[in-house]
Amino acid sequence: MLHWATAQLAVLFIILRWLEMVTLQYSIVRREQFGTSIINHLPCVVSWYLQS
């Protein structure tokens, strides 16, 4: 049980780091549009992660 929770945390951390990298990459090109889409999709991602 504990190992599974640790694995989930590791996956979440990797996803967050990837999102940060992608956001930094796109912020130069289309900062406002991309930032808004990330903020709009964040609740969906969080709820999907909590349900899984």
UniProtKB/TrEMBL annotation:
Top-level taxon in the UniProt lineage: Eukaryota
Entry protein name: Uncharacterized protein
Originating species: Panicum virgatum
